[in-house]
């Protein structure tokens, strides 16, 4: 499975879930899951892989997964009114059979507000964090104690904000060999002594743990920035939708969100914002609508990748 840019994830495992409804709108569940995972990252050189510049991670995650929700949405297939509030969490630990110890709470809220018989607002918000605890195993592919595939990435027609490429929104950092430290710039890693006759700074030494090519004679040649994923994220989405008597719904959207690293505080610096038009087509043959999205970013970072048109099958949120 394509996980993100230059990365693939494959795995096998299973889960068991027990759940119960309380009244008409409340439900709760708890489950146990175990997955054996192979994560191949061609954009993050944390350890020596089968191909130079590749990190191959073989690990497992055993976790319990509690969840509680309150759902009054009138139609899950074609909603126009109601709300959904859901809190879920992943609590992984070596005592649960896996190699990793982290907790990962996530809260999501969605509300549909009818304006007229055929128009309504759709609002969606989400926030989450992931943090290691205890004494988990250390292996290549981790960033600050968290497997990179468990860190947060945003972007895309499903994850949001729309028009950004899927899982392309992430902090970008230099990472040391064992994934235990990140640095913002080369200056945090390399020291210099004076300048040459052309005014170029002369490299003196570098911190060896950041140098992935120690035999090339120049520290900076081995340094690479990478999309490391965040330990926190937030997302908000707003739609104004017009429903026809036929299978079409037309909507205007405004999305905003960001992913944050451990060296950042909560805030709106670096936030991504997008807007555009979405057309959804509801056909009986599909269990979810066909989505045609056209838009553009209002605010992005220089290294972001965006696209004017996206196609998907499923709900916007």
Descriptive account of the structure:
The chain is mainly β and 317 residues long. The protein contains no helices and 21 strands. The chain folds into three domains: 1-136, Beta Barrel (Porin); 152-170 and 228-317, no CATH class; 172-227, no CATH class. The strands form four sheets. Strands 1, 2, 3, 4, 5, 6, 7, 8, 9, 17, 18, 19, 20 and 21 form a 14-stranded antiparallel sheet that branches. The chain has a three-stranded antiparallel sheet with strand order 13-12-16, with no helix packed on it. Mean pLDDT is 87; it is low at 47-52.
Please name the CATH architecture of the largest domain.
Answer: Beta Barrel
The CATH superfamily of the largest domain is known as membrane protein fhac: a member of the omp85/tpsb transporter family
What gyration radius follows from the Cα positions, in whole Å?
22 Å
Query: What is the helix/strand order?
Result: EEEEEEEEEEEEEEEEEEEEE
Structure at a glance:
It contains no helices and 21 strands. It has strands at 2-4, 7-22, 26-41, 55-64, 67-71, 82-92, 102-114, 119-129, 131-132, 142-143, 146-147, 172-175, 182-183, 190-195, 201-206, 225-227, 232-243, 248-260, 272-281, 290-299, 309-313.
